[in-house]
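In this supplementary section we document a worked example of the pipeline. Step one takes a protein sequence of length 165 as its only input; no multiple sequence alignment statistics are reported here. Step two produces a three-dimensional model, which step three serialises into structure tokens for compact storage. The input and output of this example are shown verbatim.
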Amino acid sequence: MHWYLVHSKPRQERIALENLEHQGYQCYLPVLPTEKIRRGSLSLADEALFPRYLFIRLGNDLSAKGWGPIRYTTGVSRLVSFGSEPARIDDALIAQLQSSESRHKQRPARLFEPGDRLRITDGPFTGIEGVFQIAEGDKRVMVLIELMSRPLSVGIAPSMVRKLG
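The serialised model returned by step three reads:
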């Protein structure tokens, strides 16, 4: 049994994964929890580490599942190949990805970290630059700005700020 690489259709990694697993294939889609802004609020979402790619484990012997159905699976674009040979992935790489994924699940990637420089893009403070302090729940972030030569901490919706640099 060896790992191979499947190229999915755009934004259909999960659909390809579900359909391949439903057919009895062993698959792996590495994901990382990431903070996103959705409908003006901060939320956690699992993002594919390699967009449009997932791994599949296939055997070479006669008892192994066939390769043919993979091409016609909903969500799958093709099996990645070099010439006529499918691209084989080392087991150690898959183990390393799985280990890294489990470590990152405990600490999701944050959209803003304390000390990040931000620019306010909407509201009464539009165009003012500030420093991210902390997220207050999922509906508000605290940003330190300078107004009339004095520091001022303001709470605003996360959709109203953009990270600089």
